[in-house]
Amino acid sequence: MLERKEVLKELDRFKKYVVQQAKSNLTKSKKNSSKRLYDSIKGVSKANPNSISLYFEMLDYGEFQDKGVSGKFKKYNTPYTYRDKMPPTKSLDKWIVRKGIAPRDDKGRLMNRQSLKFAIANSIFKNGIKPSLFFTKPFEKGYKTLPNELIEAYGLDITKIFTDTIDTKKWQTYTLEVLILSR
């Protein structure tokens, strides 16, 4: 049986790996334009007398970037879908400027972006958001590196671990929680 100190060390290693790889994947896939999602990815572990918990947090839209969203015409293997409402154009305004695709007049001044925002929102509505798995892949890969002794001793089951709870009223974070109770 692993000592409590060793368990904490392994979970901390797992946490650091998942966070670092998720951030790296975000950057590599060019889904890091505002850096808000990147900066929000955190792993938190807590040790109590009878339990150890480990959870991951990120802004709530990170789940849609990770798992994707099916569009009206293009489908992905995801629980999310656009059915009858387009994504809000408001959120696209700053993104358009950051990406350098905002229209400008002859003097270089920014022009009205309403039609561009609508066209992009319409494209997202029809084609969806392709799953990037920026978080899922490192989580699953990191899980496989956990010692078998740890998995067996604490009854870690990836299907039970990989459940999500969203607390949109409080922190606007996406939390994956691992709760390991001592037996």
Description:
With 183 residues, this protein is an alpha+beta fold. The protein has two domains: 114 residues, no CATH class; 39 residues, no CATH class. 43% of the residues lie in helices and 15% in strands. The longest helix is centred in the N-terminal third of the chain and has 25 residues. It is elongated.
List keywords for this structure.
alpha+beta, 8 helices, 4 strands, disordered C terminus
Q: Could you give a quick summary of the protein structure above?
A:
With 183 residues, the protein is an alpha+beta fold.
The total number of structural domains is 2
Distance between the termini: 11 Å
Shape: elongated
Low-confidence stretches: 164-183
Roughly how much helix do the residues carry, as a percent range?
40-55%
H-E string: HHEEHHHHHHEE
Which range does the strand content fall in? 15-25%
* Overall number of strands: 4
Helix/sheet category: alpha+beta
Multimerization state? single chain
User: Counting H and I runs of at least 4 residues, what is the number of helices?
Assistant: 8
Overall pLDDT level: 80
